[in-house]
Amino acid sequence: MTRDVFGAFDEQVRTRLSELQSIAQSGGLDEAVEAMVSSIRNGGVLQAFGTGHSQAFAMEIAGRAGGLIPTHAIALRDTVLKGDRPASDLKGGLLERDSNIANELWELHEFHPEDVFLIASNSGVNGSIVGIALRAKEEGHTVIAVTSLEHTNAVTPKHPSGKRLAEIADVVIDNLAPFGDATVPVGDGAGEGVLAGAVSSITAAYIAQLLTLGTAARIQEAGETPPLYLSANIPGGDEHNDALKARYGERIGSMA
Fold first, then answer.
1. Separation of alpha carbons 162 and 123, rounded Å
2. Which of 3, 161, 202, 230 has the smallest set of CB atoms within 10 Å of its CB?
3. SS3 assignment, position 229
4. Is residue 154 within 8 Å of residue 187, measured between CB atoms?
């Protein structure tokens, strides 16, 4: 039984990653890549945001080895670390669903007109996610969404606007996760079938890496050097990174 579910999950993941690869190869990510390249060339920063497990997408985009240096992750915890909220506010999912948190987050960071927003949410309907997307659009920024179209179209928006992330974004990338995210039936001990094996974190991370690779390759093809992080755990990594990070300062986070 255990080996059966391992194999079933492997198939679910491989099938989706293969489809994303085909989408990328056929140009399905080109619009997002072009927006990211344009932002970087014009001195912009790629602003990544996600809540819950979709925070992992922002971590794949921003501040990691092999990633683009002009990137910055926005997080709900910023309202505690940079703002005045108590740490207790981070418990549960209240902030994630708070439609007013977007304006609070906005005032905690420095955004420039050239910045592009990459926003990930499997459901695409929570208040904070929709709020950030709406505020970014109001301020004239390009918004790239990574979301499950199957899931978002099956649930009711929670933001007062009545909108979904996919209905706001300039570019929408389907993470190919199913409704409910989990993919593999397993027994619950009472003979009832339940599902495990969520895939949205895996497919979103893969999309983040495809976007990073596509952007870096497009910059390199134009005869320029892509501004990429080296691992801080290899000789010369810190020196390389710090020299490039200095161009952006606090726009991409602390220089400490």
1. 14
2. 3
3. coil
4. no
Whose CA is closest to 122, among 177, 160, 170, 171? 177
Is the whole model's pTM more than 0.85, yes or no?
yes
- As given in the structure block, the two tokens for residue 202 are 């895996």
Walk across the sheet containing 46-50 and list its strands.
Answer: 71-74, 46-50, 116-120, 142-147, 171-174
CA distances from 233 to 7, 64, 241 (A): 35, 11, 11
Three-state DSSP at 22 gives: helix
Helix (H, G, I), strand (E, B) or coil at 241: helix
Alpha carbon of 194 to those of 21, 82, 124, 137, 184: distances in Å? 29, 41, 23, 39, 8
Amino acid at 179: F
CA pair distance 137, 154, nearest whole angstrom? 24
- 3-state SS assignment for residue 84: coil
For residue 71 the two structure tokens come to 């990137």
- What is the dihedral sign for C-alpha 48, 50, 55, 60? negative
What token pair was written down for 11? 């198939």
pLDDT-derived band at 255 (thresholds 50, 70, 90) equals very low
Encode pLDDT of 156-198 as tens digits: 999 999 999 999 999 999 999 999 999 999 866 554 678 999 9
